[in-house]
Structures are given as structure tokens and as C-alpha cells.
Amino acid sequence: CRLQWVVCETTAVATAGSSGFTFNKPNGSTLSFSDKAAEVLANGIDLVFASSSLQYLEHWPQMLQAFRAAPWLLLDRVPLIDHPSDLIAIQVVPASYTDTRYPGWKFASTTWLPRLAQAGFEPVLQWLVPEDRWTVLDLETGQYRWSAQHDHGFLLQRQPAESINQPSVVF
Fold this sequence. Notes:
With 171 residues, the chain is α/β, with parallel strands linked by helices. It is built from four helices and twelve strands. The strands form four sheets. A four-stranded mixed β-sheet has the order 4-5-12-9, covered by helices on one side. The chain has a three-stranded mixed β-sheet with strand order 1-3-2. It has a three-stranded mixed β-sheet with strand order 6-8-7.
């Protein structure tokens, strides 16, 4: 069995990974790092695995379309919110860890599966991720607005192109 695993990450992480964590096994199995998603997806892959990452992309719908390069998509740690539209929240990382703030999407739960279908994916499995809990604080009022006791995971299979009513996106 041969496995070629390419970790697609930020430039800093890809550089660090390339300098210390790559390997080539005699059976042809490899581990490598890249910061060029389009190149990785264009090289022919069987599975895209995105864990707690899609929500941090500014143009996540385009990336979801690009993931159609693989017949299988595994999305894990997806934050869904009981709200009619997607929200952008500022995630605050505790000062004891790194004292960082960055934007992230909270996806509307009622429109998530239809958008996956529109992007050309069919759900095969779904699960809850109870380790991921979060709360959204309204900065104007200082009150908690939404909270979740878990995130979500999805194993998806690419639908045949003729069953999708949306053109492919190339970036």
C-alpha cells in the first residue's frame, strides 16, 4: 500500500514542515508540505481532508469548489450556528496560549448541506465533534448571543458533474 500525503498549509507551516517532517519510504509512501493549494489539487488526489480550516478562509466557497478535484472530501470541526445567515466572529485565543485574535466563519446550519450539494458534494457520513465548544459574544451589548456544544464533521463524495447546476470555479 502506497500513501502520498501532502499537507497544504500556510507558507510558514509548509516551510517548517518541509525542513523537518517530510519522508520518502521505500514502498513509495511520502509525506510532503506545500502552500500552493491549486497545485496540490491539480496533481490528482483521492481525498481532501480539511479539519478546522475552511471557516478561516476568506473565500471558502471557491475553495470548496476547488476541492471537487478529489472524489472524496472529509470536513471536520465545522462550526454551524442556528442563525439564518453565516456570521463572521473574531476568535480570541487565550493570552496564556498566544494572545491572538482572528476572524472565522460560523456557518448557518440550515443552509450548510444545501450549499455542499450546490458545490457538488453528497453527504455519506455526518458526526458531532463534542471537543469543540464555542460562544459568540455580542460586542455591542456584551451579552452572549450564540453558543455551541460541538462542531460537525462530514464525509462527502463528489457528485457527477452533470448533476450539478453550477459551473466549476478555477483559481
